[in-house]
């Protein structure tokens, strides 16, 4: 078999992996329904399948953090701490006005797994299908979770000095030069911004049991916190209950902003192809330039908005059974479309 045949097989494996992983994470991570609240702190952790090593070198760690930063921006989340271990990772995440933890993690795990499989020439799942997430009592346990996560390498006997461990955010807390996507200010405020005092706090945990209490396999906090969060979640889910005016107003504003941004994307792509925006959104199966324009639009919407695929399909009026992989493959397989997509994505990043 020649080089061309090998490349075709590699590409087929790549897209089969991407489709399989996306659909699997989509199914497994949607049930049962998670506690997903706005302006809430979460300790998120997931392990690899059968003990596979997820981060083999610094390049893997950087690529994973690249995706973390990308989806933090897209979903408007905050990251207070992280620790990348050989077979699992920890994230201390805080939602703001876009509670969509499952979608955030689905995209992160799928993107990194596809990268990892392609780079290390492997196939199939890298991480277990369902990640763990605990809703955290931020007032009482932000510091405890920060210390627990940063001490994980020592507790797992991977290193002796937590500050020297390459794969965690502790080095930035201690030495400064925080990356843009790491939110250290709130934690360091407990120490009046004194990084040395925070390091002392971390090292004091070396001889203590630092694992916070977990209740009902879903919460980090005391019983009163659990009751409040269950009431809060039930209130927001209850049908027929009137949504508080400020929350309704904020939700409506977010939706309006998303629709405006989506319309702007459709308009930009339409201009590139010399067509009117309406034909991209008419839902009719059309080939040629309009079909290519629709494929670019769909992938660009996916990269630019925190919408699920069904939301994007509804916006474009699509009713067929073709999934995201079909449109992504069309763009990736056409050099001109791929270059156009990358240029439009760069324009979006400059604008935002």
Structure commentary:
The chain is an alpha+beta fold and 352 residues long. It has two domains: 3-237, 2-Layer Sandwich (Alpha-Beta Plaits); 245-351, DnaA protein, C-terminal DNA-binding domain (Chromosomal Replication Initiator Protein Dnaa, Chain: A), CATH 1.10.1750.10. It is built from 15 helices and six strands. The protein has a six-stranded mixed sheet, with helices on both faces. Helix 12 crosses helix 13 (309-316), helix 12 crosses helix 14 and helix 12 (288-304) packs parallel to helix 15. The longest helix has 29 residues, at 245-273. The N and C termini lie far apart (47 Å). Mean pLDDT is 84; it is low at 4-10 and 12-32.
A few lines on this structure:
The chain is an alpha+beta fold. It has 15 helices and six strands.
Task: List strands and helices in order, with pairings.
Elements: H1 3-28, E1 41-47, H2 58-75, E2 78-84, E3 88-94, H3 101-120, E4 132-136, H4 138-150, H5 152-155, H6 170-175, H7 185-189, H8 195-204, E5 214-215, E6 219-220, H9 223-237, H10 245-273, H11 277-280, H12 288-304, H13 309-316, H14 324-332, H15 335-351
Task: Give the CATH level 1 class of the largest domain.
Answer: Alpha Beta
Tell me the Rg in angstroms: 22 Å
The total count of strands amounts to: 6
Helix content: 55-70%
CATH architecture call of the largest domain: 2-Layer Sandwich
Helical stretch tally: 15
Given the helix and strand composition, which structural class is it?
Answer: alpha+beta
Question: What strand line-up does the widest sheet have?
Answer: 2-3-1-4-6-5
Strand and helix order = HEHEEHEHHHHHEEHHHHHHH
Provide the β-strand percentage band: 5-15%
- What is the CATH topology assignment of the largest domain? Alpha-Beta Plaits
Number of domains: 2
- Kindly state the mean pLDDT as a whole number? 84
Low-confidence stretches: 4-10, 12-32
The named CATH superfamily of the largest domain: Transposase IS200-like
Q: Largest beta sheet, briefly?
A: 6 strands, mixed
What would you call the shape? globular
CA-CA gap between termini: 47 Å
């Amino acid at each position: 078999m020649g080089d061309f045949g090998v490349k075709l097989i590699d590409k087929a494996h790549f897209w089969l992996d991407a489709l399989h992983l996306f659909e699997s994470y989509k199914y497994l991570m949607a049930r049962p329904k998670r506690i997903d609240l706005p302006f809430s702190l979460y300790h998120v952790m997931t392990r690899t399948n059968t003990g596979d090593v997820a981060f083999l070198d610094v390049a893997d760690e950087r690529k994973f953090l690249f995706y973390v930063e990308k989806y933090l921006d897209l979903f408007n989340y905050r990251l207070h701490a992280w620790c990348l271990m050989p077979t699992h990772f920890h994230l201390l995440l805080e939602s703001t006005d876009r509670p969509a933890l499952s979608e955030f993690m689905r995209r992160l795990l799928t993107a990194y797994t596809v990268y990892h499989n392609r780079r290390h020439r492997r196939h199939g799942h890298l991480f277990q299908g369902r990640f763990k997430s605990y809703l955290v009592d931020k007032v009482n346990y932000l510091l405890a979770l920060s210390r627990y996560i940063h001490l994980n390498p020592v507790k797992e006997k991977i290193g002796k000095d937590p500050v020297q461990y390459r794969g965690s955010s502790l080095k930035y807390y201690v030495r400064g030069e925080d990356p843009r996507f790491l939110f250290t200010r709130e934690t360091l405020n407990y120490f009046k911004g004194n990084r040395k005092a925070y390091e002392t706090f971390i090292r004091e945990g070396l001889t203590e049991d630092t694992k916070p209490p977990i209740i009902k396999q879903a919460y980090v906090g005391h019983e009163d916190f659990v009751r409040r969060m269950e009431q809060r979640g039930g209130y927001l889910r209850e049908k027929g209950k009137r949504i508080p005016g400020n929350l309704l107003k904020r939700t409506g504003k977010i939706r309006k902003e998303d629709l405006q941004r989506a319309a702007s994307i459709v308009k930009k792509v339409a201009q590139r192809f010399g067509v009117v925006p309406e034909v991209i959104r008419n839902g009719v199966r059309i080939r040629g330039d309009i079909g290519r324009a629709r494929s670019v639009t769909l992938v660009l919407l996916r990269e630019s908005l925190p919408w699920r695929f069904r939301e994007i399909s509804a916006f474009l009026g699509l009713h067929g059974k073709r999934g995201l992989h079909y449109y992504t493959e069309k763009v990736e397989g056409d050099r001109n479309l791929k270059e156009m997509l990358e240029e439009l994505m760069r324009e979006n990043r400059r604008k935002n």
